[in-house]
Design a protein that fits this description.
The protein is an alpha/beta fold. About 40% of the residues lie in helices and about 15% in strands. Helix 2 packs parallel to helix 8, helix 3 packs across helix 4 and helix 9 packs parallel to helix 12. The longest helix has 22 residues. The structure holds pyridoxal-5'-phosphate (PLP).
């Protein structure tokens, strides 16, 4: 699904000495590399504050802690996402309120969000799934109207931009009150282990969060709030400093692969290729509205699981993200949910398949993958 080795070979000469330097200087925790990465990422995203942390799940949790959400507060998020998003809501004893997504872009459905708001709602967590932003303008309007916080789960869309109706752009993750991302190795900006970060333009929130990631300390050995221990280590920061300057090119390589996939599947009526909804109406080659963390097809009238088996037999990796809606997961069952409210997610889990997507895909691989799929479908 991903080829991290090829990417490493290209940046080896920068990454290796930089990791070596961390070891030689023994600045393993909160060393200068971490500060440097924080500044580099702030500049790249055009955001006032980046707070690095240990992983993307922590980033989401810490963002919610920083906003002062309290047990019983309701938090609305998408039914079709990775479990981390809902997990941290539940861990903090907040009440997850899962809602349906759109059929076209797989992102949180605005009408469903509106319908889910109650007097207890305190926050909305849009997930920028597979590499493109949720409808942030509509989400921010709802949030402003109902006085809600917006926490962007940007684990899958770092480097993507959101385009407002008036043409103004902002980087994914910098629009709501706070954004969270992951540097898990297979993400668009991945390190060589675990890593994450929180972004915000709010000075007070940034201050609060800097204390929370460090055991609730704002002054050494004074613990003002209950915090956590969540740090990006210096070796990971060294890797990220080497990779960040390439992020736009990495995302371009993903877009190029997506364009080639799209072209190969053109006219195959059982296959619906990914639809880009923000900023452009088709396949991105000059814009950054979709950074293709995943390249996900919808299959119509095809036995998806048989295709998965067939691809596995042919040695082609593929993934089903996600096979079970979160509202049907044992840990998150809630009698308030009504199946009629999840028609899209319930359908998507049966139809989706994600193909290999990374920066090193070549034409020959794409041709082999697409022709194998088309042959299977045409019988
Ligand atoms: C990867 C991911 C996370 C969690 O990131 P980790 O660094 O693995 O903790 C959260 N949300 C989404 C949507 C993700 O894809």
């Amino acid at each position: 699904m991903v080829d991290l080795k090829g990417q490493y070979n290209d940046i080896k000469d920068i990454v290796n000495p930089s990791i070596q330097e961390v070891i030689e200087t023994t600045a393993f925790i909160n060393g200068p590399k971490v500060h440097e990465f924080q500044k580099n990422l702030e500049k790249y995203l055009g955001v006032k504050h980046v707070i690095p942390c240990a992983n993307g799940t922590d980033a989401l949790q810490i963002a919610m802690m920083g906003l002062g959400l309290k047990p019983g507060d309701e938090v609305i998020t998408a039914d079709f996402t990775f479990a981390a998003t809902v997990e941290v809501i539940a861990l903090l004893q907040l009440v997850p309120v899962l809602v349906d997504v759109n059929e076209d872009d797989f992102n949180i459905n605005i009408e469903a969000v509106k319908k889910a708001i109650t007097p207890k709602t305190k926050a909305i967590v849009p997930v920028h799934l597979f590499g493109q932003c949720a409808n942030m303008e509509a989400i921010m309007d709802i949030a402003n109207k109902h006085n809600l916080y917006v926490i962007e789960d940007n684990a899958q869309a770092i480097g993507a931009s959101y385009t407002y109706k008036n043409g103004k752009k902002a980087k994914a993750g910098t629009i709501g009150n706070v954004g969270a991302t992951s540097f898990f190795p297979s993400k668009n900006l991945g390190c060589y282990g675990d890593g994450g970060a929180i972004f915000t333009n709010d000075d007070d929130l940034a201050h609060t969060i800097r204390g929370i990631v460090n055991h609730g300390m704002y002054e050494r050995y004074h613990h003002d709030v209950v915090g956590v221990n969540s740090r990006l280590d210096s070796i990971q920061a060294a890797v990220l400093n080497a990779k960040l300057p390439h992020l736009d090119n990495y995302n371009k390589a993903r877009q190029n692969a997506a364009r080639k996939y799209n072209e190969a599947f053109k006219g195959i009526k059982n296959i619906i290729t990914p639809i880009t909804v923000n900023g452009c109406d088709g396949i991105c080659d000059t814009c950054d509205c979709h950074v293709f963390h995943q390249y996900t097809l919808k299959l119509k009238g095809v036995n998806r699981d048989a295709l998965v088996n067939h691809l596995n037999e042919k040695g082609i990796p593929c993934g089903v993200y996600y096979p079970i809606p979160l509202h049907k997961q044992k840990a998150y069952l809630d009698e308030r949910y009504n199946e009629a409210d999840f028609t899209v997610t319930n359908q998507l889990v049966k139809e989706v398949i994600s193909l290999p997507m990374h920066t090193e895909l070549d034409d020959e691989q794409i041709e082999f993958i697409t022709s194998t799929i088309i042959k299977f479908i045409n019988g």
